[in-house]
Amino acid sequence: MKSKTTLGEFVLVNPSVKLIKGNEYPFVEMGNIIPGNRYVNSLNSRIFNGGGARFCSGDTLFARITPCLENGKIAFFKSKDKGVGFGSTEFIILRHREGISDPDYIFYLATSDIVRKPAEKSMSGSSGRQRADINSIKEVEIFAPNLIVQRKIASILSAYDDLIENNTRRIAILEEIAQSLYQEWFVHYRFPGHEKIKMIESELGLIPEGWKVVNFTDMADILSGGTPKTTIPEYWNGDIPFFTPKDASPSLFVLTTEKNITSLGLNACSSKLYPKNTIFITARGTVGKVFLNAVDMAMNQSCYALQGKGGFPQYFLFMHIRNCIDQLRQNAHGAVFDTIIVDTFKRLRVVSPFDETINTFVSILSPVFEQMLNLLKKNENLRHTRDLLLPKLISGDMDVEHLFNFDKFKENIDELIPVIKR
């Protein structure tokens, strides 16, 4: 028989932490937490003045306010010196009980629907400011295995997250390589053969002789999007990814979208089906986020699609527009919210290098981008498999003691996939 208990008996909820007013501690904002990532993305230090949630290294931070809870803003606070910190008042803090629960297991438990769904159901308050009820969360009934099983479950799930984090670090290095190469060639003008080319004055300052200053729209077509009527079900839940600013991610590529449309929906809106490696740029709300679509996608009217004219290389165009984002934002319109319009692109003046230089750059950059995309796809598959596995383990439906050789699993993580999908 499965051992059951309540979350409040299994973990400490909002335990006390001693912080001294006037001292500086790590501070975690809600924005630091990226759904699906195990650890807090970034930490800033702030002077503690008495407010905010307090926590120790090893605690789980659980967002209690809408839409952060629904979006899965849950993270494990891991401090290098195993110290303390504080953060947003909208966190519920979950800590292990000595001899009863394991810190890593608690994190995975908190990310499961066993805890999240009752927390969401308990939310109350004014529209847009609804919060989960702490007492209701304490009463959530959970599966409570012994510490050995907890640690084994946490280790299995951590193996996936370790691979994801390793791939993410590799992606960051590749992004840095791409950015450094672009800066070296097209900002500092230290491209191959630059020693033989004279620098001349232009409206944008000194540029290599033979290069031109042009309107950005001489390089790229600026294309728009649109949204099918949401009142017509036949337009939605098809197999065509539908990009909106909500799908913005930390990576350069967009692999999946929150919503999909049908062919009928595509034909009934202003968006085209944009091929892989089209550049999407958000034009409203969070202005100037730039991505490449990893698969064919449609998009809504809050974005623009950029496609190189006459076969102008997309990877170069992507790096070029990223370098101009600050200019675009400065020239954005809107009395209340900044908005990029087509005229914003028309007024953007950029340097157009030699075709040979661009083509050489793209030949070097293409394998870098393809490697990034492959790593992102691997991470997507790892997350999918982890998320299939998590509810089976956390609910106790999968016996980890007799399923497989645990030490061997560490070497071959794919061993579980056929079992999970049964």
From TrEMBL:
Domain Type I restriction modification DNA specificity: 20-175, 208-377
UniProt superkingdom: Bacteria
Keywords for this protein: DNA-binding, Restriction system
DNA-binding listed as a keyword: yes
InterPro entries xrefs: Restrct_endonuc_typeI_TRD (IPR000055), Restrct_endonuc_typeI_TRD_sf (IPR044946), Type-I_RS_S_subunit (IPR052021)
Example GO molecular function: DNA binding
Keyword DNA-binding on entry: yes
GO BP, sorted A to Z: DNA restriction-modification system
PANTHER family referenced in this protein's UniProt entry, alphabetically: TYPE I RESTRICTION ENZYME MJAVIII SPECIFICITY SUBUNIT, TYPE-1 RESTRICTION ENZYME ECOKI SPECIFICITY PROTEIN
Family: Belongs to the type-I restriction system S methylase family.
Official protein name in the record: Type I restriction modification DNA specificity domain-containing protein
Organism: Dictyobacter aurantiacus
